[in-house]
Amino acid sequence: MLAKEWLKNARSVMDTLEQTQLDNVAKAATIMADTIEKGRWVHTFGCGHATIPVEEMYPRIGSFVGFHPLCELPLTFFTQIIGQMGIHQFLYLERAEGYGQEIMKNYDFTPDDCLWIFSHTGINAVNIDVALEAKKRGMKVIVYGSAEQTGDKPSRHSCGKNLFQIADVVVDSCVPLVDASVPMKKHFDKVGPLSTLGFVTLVWMTITTVAEMLEERGVKLYIHPSHNVPGDTTAHERLDEAIAEYKRRVKVL
Question: What does the alpha-carbon distance between residue 95 and residue 99 come to, in Å, rounded to a whole number?
Fold first, then answer.
């Protein structure tokens, strides 16, 4: 049964993350905690399905203010697939050198900010543009993706480096480079990708670690509460407080 094979593969990824990546997650979380403690932003970026972990972390019940999505709509998969904003345009844009530089012009960054990028292969130009621009501004760059399997594979950027070679901290998603994991009897291509599961697992491993660090430092967290639980009479007040803090911080961008 292919469903069970995918579940086995998914559990294997999660187990491998626990066995191999906790130290790297702690390194990334320390940079993020330092940024949030200073009242600055952990900027988050990805392309295609790598925008899903960006959209997962804030605003989100159980997350907290400090994570700022750099979500560029033409680079997401919330598109029409064909026609306007189709898949061909997306593939062109994520490989177009210089596009990431234009994205970064829209924000006022400081060296106290950091950049958290999700990229399965780490070879496409727009991610590398964004990372290089962040480094120019003195920001630490944290990259999550299939780092070990990408290795020293050449990038699609004139700098000659892939994203993992640029990063200050790398966390390996432990997902095969081909991503899809379940073979078919009558087809060349596999089905059942794993990269989104790996990324979202790492998002919550990281954010919970950041929360733990900040709480130990005595930093107040503006947590996004559930406002759907009967009997919780202060949920909307806590939500308003979190949104007010987000609004206050985002003014400096």
Answer: 9
pTM for the whole structure: 0.95
Domain 2-250 has CATH 3.40.50.10490: yes
The shares of helix, strand and coil residues in the chain, as percent rounded to the nearest 5, are 45, 15, 40
Enumerate the domain spans of the chain: 2-250
pLDDT in tens, the chain (253 residues): 999 999 999 999 999 999 999 999 999 999 999 999 999 999 999 999 999 999 999 989 999 999 999 988 889 876 678 888 888 888 888 998 999 999 999 999 999 999 999 999 999 999 999 999 999 999 999 999 999 988 888 889 999 899 999 999 999 999 999 999 999 999 999 999 999 999 999 999 999 999 999 999 999 999 999 988 899 999 999 999 999 999 998 887 8
Q: Based on C-alpha coordinates, what's the Rg of the chain?
A: 19
